[in-house]
Amino acid sequence: MNASIASSARELQAYLAGATPRLSKAQLSQIINFSRISLIVGLVFLHYESFPNSRISPFRGMDTETFPVATFINSFVLFFFFSVVPLLSMTSGWLYFSFTDNPRQELLSRIGRRFKSLYIPLILWNLLFLAILWSVFWANRQSPILEHINIHFETARLFDYVNAVFGITEHPVGFQFWFVRDLFVTILVSPILWVMLKRAPVLGALALGLVWLSGFDLWIFFRTDVVFFFYLGGMLRLNKAPLEISTRIAVLLLLTYIALVAIRTAAPLFIDVESGIVDAVTRAMRLVGVLACWGIFQKVALTAFGARVARYGGFAFFLHAIHFPLLAAVKIWLWHFVPVENQAWMLIHYAVSVTVTVAIGVATGVALARLAPRQFAFLNGGRLAAS
User: pTM for this one?
Assistant: First the structure.
């Protein structure tokens, strides 16, 4: 079975890669670093969410009646970067299942290391956020930043605070850490995934894929795209599937993905988007998005510009950790400087809010890495960074 899968993967890769030469380890490392920081910047765009004066969530699609151009662009960017979590998860799975011998020992060792590099930072950052936001609450209970977080201090009980820090059954106060939490839960069940990958890889992929498309959380995840794409990354690694995508195919995939995202963004013009079928199709788009982004990243990351960007790959986790509620605060503050609430100024606010957030996040990370490298590494999940 595994030989058949490997053969099929080689045939598919031959079509995707064309005459593209195999990537060296150094090139692949540079592409992964470029991908990480680029995807997290995309995540910051995604987490801007709706404009302060918008009445409709961009997760629904464009607003067909009010500010249609601005909301189309906002929603388009959001849907485009829906590929962030799948590609990050797939990369994590590919890196995680790099072993071939002593699976019991390797899995236990990796679970322990991921506890230190994923879950401990999750706890530390959310404790920090909780302390800051609690201080804001007591200083000014009407502060608009409190409307953007998922804990209500006036009514919160003990377990709400537990969730705010540990993310057990609800998103933590730094809601972006839902991904880190789900990734760690995926690590915890990785022995089961290993058995599936070794004994019934295709059946496992089909089962997890159907679960993901249905939106079922398997009772222990917030979203099952993390475990599904992590599993796919493991399949690629265990079957030694080449990762190259030719320029022609990469561009074709990107154009296809752009078209799909544009159609989904404009869907409120034509159909009722509040349906399970639309949700499933929206999820399925991410399969194309992962291939498109990976293919384009390969081309850009190996340029001089890509090499410069890749140097900041070690700051991806830090930027992911710090960008919210920082983004919410920046967004609120900058809205006061918008002279006219028209579409042009809305888009300027959108771009500047994300740019300022990324600049503050990366600059803070760089400063900490240089002035207090041990403390930075601690907050960065043990990851060293240099720029």
Answer: 0.94
